[in-house]
Amino acid sequence: MSTLKAVRGTRDLLPPETELWNKVEATARRVFARYNFGEIRTPLFEDTSLFARGVGEETDIVSKEMYTWEDRARAQSEKPQSLTLRPENTAGVVRAYIEHKLGETGMLQKLYYIGPQFRRERPQKGRYRQFWQIGAEVIGPASAGSESPLRDAEVLEMLAAFLHELGIRDAKLSINSVGSASDRPRYVAALREALQDKAPQMCVDCQRRAETNPLRVLDCKVPEDQPIIDALPKIADYLDEESKAHFAAVCAALDACGVAYEVNPRLVRGLDYYTRTTFEFSHGGLGAQNALLGGGRYDGLSEAIGGPKAPGIGFAMGEDRLILTLQAQASEAASTLADAYVAPLGEGMNAAALRLAHELRGAGLKIELGDGSFRLKKSFEMGNKLARKIILFGEDELASGMLTVKDFASGEQVKVARGEIAHFLGA
Ligand code: AMP
C-alpha cells in the first residue's frame, strides 16, 4: 500500500516553525489593536454564489481555482446547494456585515481575520492550495467616513507599521487607482478597443483576457508582451475629477506620515471588486511569487452581494510569504558572509581601499578587503565566496566619487555615490 501524504499544495506546519507563525499572528493582533480593529471569524465554506457575485465570475479565482461541490439535498424536493471553500475572506466579511446589519450602527466597522484560504493554483514556492491570510477590512456607511482617502492612508500606514514591527525589511509599496465604478467601464472599453489589433500578437492568456477581462492583461508577465502592454491606454487618463482628487489625497496623506510608495499604473489586481485605490507590498527575497500582500478599496462590493451601500477598504497578507521572508532574513543574518567585498583596482588603490573599508566598518558593516594585485576575475571569485556584494574601487571611482556595486545573488550592478554607500549596504 502506498503511504499517504498531505495533499498536493497543502502542508503540515511543525514546531519549531509554528512558533514563528504564532509570533507573526501575535504581532498582527497587537498592531491592529492599536488601530482599534476587532477580530471576525467567518466560516471556511460559503454558498458558491457569494464568490461568483462578490469576487467576479471572470476572475481566475472564480473561473478556475475554487474548490466547489454540491451539498446533499436535505429533502428530495430541494435543490442541492453549491458550496465553496473560501478562496479569500473579504466576500465572507462583507456577507457577515450585511447579515448582522452592522451598518445600522452608523459606525465604521474595523475587522480583521486570520485563517486558511483555498485556491486550486499550481503549487510552487510561496504558492499553495491551502494558504493562510491575515487581513483586515474597514467598512461602513458613507456618513461614517468610509469613502475618505484618509481611511486608505491609515490602512497603508498600519501595514507599514506592522511590517516594521515584525522586522521585515525592504518591503516595497506600490499603489494605483483603478477609478470609480463609472471610470472603469470607460477604461475597459478603451483597453478592449486597443487590444483588438494587439491581442493576436500576444500570449494565449492575454488573447483570452482581451475578450473576457481586459484589465487582467496588465498583469501579464510574459516578456515579449511587455512593450505592447506599456503602450496601452493608462487608467490615470480615464479617472474622473473625483477619483483623481481621491487618489491625490491618499498620496498626500502617505507623504505627510512618511510612508514610502511608488505609483504603478499597471496595478489592477486579480479581484473584480476593487474601485479607486489598489495596492500591493512586494519583497524581492520571495522570487517569482513576490507579493507579500495586496488590497484596495471596494466601494460597490456590499451592493453587488445584495447589501446596502457600504464603501470599504481592506487587504490580505500572505502569512506563508511573511514567514518565508522572515526565514530568509534570519538565515542571511546567520550567514558568515560579509556585507561587501571591497576590491581595489590596482595596487595603487590599496591605501584608499583600506580607508573606504575603515569607513564602512565604522558604520557597523561587515567588510572584506581584497588586494590591488588581484586580477578582476580573481577579485570577483574571492568576493563571491566571502561577501554578498562587491565594490569596485579604482582611480575613476576615486575621482568621480561614484562606486560600482554588484550584488552576487541578483547579478544587479549599480553605481552608488560614496556618501550613500553605507546606507545602500544596509547600515
Ligand atoms: P489576493 O487575495 O489574491 O489579493 O492575495 C493577497 C495575498 O495573499 C497575496 O499577496 C499573497 O501574499 C497571498 N496569496 C494569494 N494566493 C496565495 C497562494 N496560493 N499561496 C500563498 N499565498 C497566497
Give an overview of the whole structure.
With 427 residues, the chain is an alpha+beta fold. The chain folds into 3 domains: 17-179 and 252-330, BirA Bifunctional Protein, domain 2 (2-Layer Sandwich), CATH 3.30.930; 181-238, no CATH class; 337-424, 3-Layer(aba) Sandwich (Rossmann fold), CATH 3.40.50.800. The protein contains 15 helices and 16 strands. The protein has helices at 17-34, 48-54, 60-65, 90-99, 149-166, 183-198, 204-212, 226-230, 241-256, 301-304, 319-334, 350-362, 376-386, 395-400, 421-424; strands at residues 38-39, 45-47, 68-70, 82-85, 109-118, 130-139, 172-177, 262-263, 275-282, 291-297, 312-318, 340-344, 367-369, 389-393, 402-407, 413-417. An 8-stranded mixed sheet has the order 1-5-6-11-10-9-7-8, sandwiched between helices. A 5-stranded mixed sheet has the order 13-12-14-15-16, with helices on both faces. It has a 3-stranded antiparallel sheet with strand order 2-4-3. A hairpin with a 5-residue loop joins β15 (402-407) and β16 (413-417). α1 runs antiparallel to α5. The longest helix has 18 residues, at 17-34. The radius of gyration is 25 Å and the shape is globular. The mean pLDDT is 93. Bound molecules: adenosine monophosphate. Residues 88, 119, 121, 126-128, 131, 133, 270, 291-294, 316, 318, 320-321 line the site of adenosine monophosphate.
Task: Give the helices and strands, then pairings.
Elements: H1 17-34, E1 38-39, E2 45-47, H2 48-54, H3 60-65, E3 68-70, E4 82-85, H4 90-99, E5 109-118, E6 130-139, H5 149-166, E7 172-177, H6 183-198, H7 204-212, H8 226-230, H9 241-256, E8 262-263, E9 275-282, E10 291-297, H10 301-304, E11 312-318, H11 319-334, E12 340-344, H12 350-362, E13 367-369, H13 376-386, E14 389-393, H14 395-400, E15 402-407, E16 413-417, H15 421-424
Parallel strand pairs: 1-5, 7-8, 12-13, 12-14
Antiparallel strand pairs: 2-4, 3-4, 5-6, 6-11, 7-9, 9-10, 10-11, 14-15, 15-16
Helix pairs in contact: 1-5, 5-9
Bound molecules: adenosine monophosphate.
The site of adenosine monophosphate has 17 residues, from strand 6, strand 10, strand 11 and helix 11.
